[in-house]
Amino acid sequence: MSDGAATESGATLEQELERMLEIERFSPPESFRAQALLTDPAVYEEAARDPQAWWAKQAEELDWFERWDTVLDDSDPPFYKWFVGGKINASYNCLDRHVEAGRGDRVAYHWRGEEGEERDLTYAELHRDVQRFANALKDLGIGKGDVVGIYLPMIPEVVVAMLACARIGAPHNVVFGGFSAESVKERMEFSEAKALITVDGARRKGRTAPIKQQVDDHMHDLATLEHIVVVRHTGIDVPMREGRDVFYDEVCAAADADCPAEPLDAEHPLYILYTSGSTAKPKGILHTTGGYLTGVAATHRYVFDLKPESDVYWCAADVGWVTGHSYIVYGPLCNGATSVMWEGAPDYPHKGVWWEVAERYRATILYAAPTAIRTFIKWGADIPARHDLSSLRLLGSVGEPINPKAWLWYHQVIGGGRCPIVDTWWQTETGAIMITPLPGITETKPGSATTPFPGVFADVVSEHDGQPVENGQGLLVLTQPWPSMLRTLYKEEDRFVETYFARFGRETYLVGDAARRDKDGYFWVIGRIDDVVNVSGHRLSTAEVESAIVAHELVAEAAVIGQSDEDTGQAICAFVTLTGGVEGTDEVEGGIREVVAERIGKFARPKRIVWADDLPKTRSGKIMRRLLRDIAEGRALGDVTTLRDPDVMEQLQEKIVEAQAQEQ
Length: 664
Ligand code: WTA
What we know:
664 residues, GMP Synthetase, Chain A, domain 3, 8-stranded mixed beta sheet, 7-stranded mixed beta sheet, disordered N terminus, binds 5'-O-[(S)-ethoxy(hydroxy)phosphoryl]adenosine
């Protein structure tokens, strides 16, 4: 079935989707409801009546070395503590308890490499590998509280490394493989990491990037970094520095086999994950153990209706983002799920590889980003149609708003019209899914993440007075603490309070997204209100990109905005002024893109560069990005009278029209 071809009813797919767009809502199919874990909306009332009791009930699903005395300590907002007095270990909950209950032979991951290599890892095997590597870390002098960086591709060792850290109480700091070595260095520096676990080389569409070499080129002498552990994956030659660098397989072979999991306080830091904020300096989101696990395990079970004995769950994110932390590693493993873990890119070796993977492992649940779905739409429905996707029973979406058309295509073409879709809204900061359908209960509306998960409380408030907005747009806030919430920004406590809890008081979490709520109380998330851009579900700060661009020797000034983009949701558009008299050529443009790739990563390269003689500034010299956004989106210009030089706008408007015309 290609996009132009007729469907069974005789209409084209396009016409079919148009027709469905008119159907406002989709009820859970009867066949799905009949087997769903949750079908009674009373769970929402139960959680609302006594949220602490509800979350305590979820926490009881985990294994605790010692039970907590207090569910929630809210005596010093926004510094909330959950399950105070409890002792727990994340690695124990992900592995030992399954092995001890006789489930060691269950596959934890069907791993599939880029070239089609396959490796199944059972819970018992993971348990074995994690213990050895945890001991190896100890042998290197890593202990409780030491930060360990992880910069690895999608290979089983990344999970082993994360759980080995968790086992001994060393918070991990994973950096997404798409970030440059320079970004890794910065994140190691900010977090004062004592060790970094990386790889010889990473594969991408048949090519190999020399990761260890790149790391060496940037790492130089970080005062705190004592060791670099290198996983051999591609087998390329790597430089090793005596006394600092060791090979993963060698340290594991030399380590003891048994490493009992360390009982840790519920509030012991589990990990730091850097994410983008309004300034160029990334924010180190800190998550702790007991509450985080409670949140990810409960949401993973109920949002994905997980049946660990029969489901094959596939989250197609990268472990380097929070989606991977919560829904490839901690949530699924806590729940004893069998997952697919895939190393490759969606168009390598061919554009049907996702569907080949889904078919091969008989995946029942697929969790993906709208940007991927939009790409598949562009490639055509005939590609997935060549594969048997009948095993799928539930689809998920995450990372950015999903437009109704993409939702419907996902539903029809991938889900065969029988799979509920869970559009899950959440953030690195929230740790776990916050606004989402429950697939056996919620009627869904394409484009809406529907309502908060039981025990989560959200509102849309006016930006002026913080009062709830009934039927209209406002700022999304979370009005009560939840177990998997961030605890602070690592080493930046003031910034934590300032960013999230200053605007509407210390008990209201400011999300940073605009949203509206419809007459049924459904939430529609619109997008960011701050200078954060969401490119293909990757979160970037405009300030971060600007500071990379101005590092180019010919650049005088730069202003970066997010521009709506059909494929990537938003795309980066940079307005650049060059130093005296220099012409903006293709070569300079290439150079700028190169600097951004080098400083941040390839995914942050601007899609469009507009050469500007000057940028719109207020009389005090502040760049007015709002006006740049207006012209980039082709909107009528707002008030320009406060500009130092109002003519600037006219020139820029001409330039952007020119630039767009050239691209067509
Ligand atoms: C956006 C990713 C609409 C939102 C898990 C949020 C979404 C930011 C959705 C967090 C969704 C995420 N609908 N928007 N279902 N999911 N977002 O920290 O703007 O990488 O604030 O976490 O992505 O991005 P982050």
